[in-house]
Amino acid sequence: MTTPLPDYYFRVRENGATAYRVDTQNRHRRIEMDQIAVINIKSGEVKPHGGRDLSDEDQAAIDAWIAERTVLLAARDIDDILRTVDHLNLTAQWAQTRAADADLEAVTDTLLLAMHDLRTVLLRKKADRLTAKD
User: Fold this and answer.
1) Are residues 36 and 9 in contact, defined by beta-carbon separation less than 8 angstroms?
2) Global pTM value
3) Buried-most residue among 22, 58, 100, 132 (CB within 10 A)?
4) What is the C-alpha separation between 51 and 42, in angstroms, rounded?
């Protein structure tokens, strides 16, 4: 027993996706994917493909995909940041226990500048949040 294919397929692109309507009920009994739109997640723009008009069902599927994708990308952003914290901790351990002087010389200035920049941004944002609460 196989699971039925979805009615829509979204091919992820750099800033969104290409939306396809999936058709399995054709005379050749093949899977056909008809491109219906291009989606830009950042701008929220949906461009119908080939001068077509999107049906209400098409638009609802696209809107649902955008909502799900936005949540997924936000979760990935947080996960990436938490991994960065782990990497900073591992870097501190490396610097303290295993790094040779030449290794430290090669990375210290770059790391210090990046950490200073990050600290500046984080402190400014925290001050903005504290000021906004007052």
Assistant:
1) no
2) 0.78
3) 58
4) 22
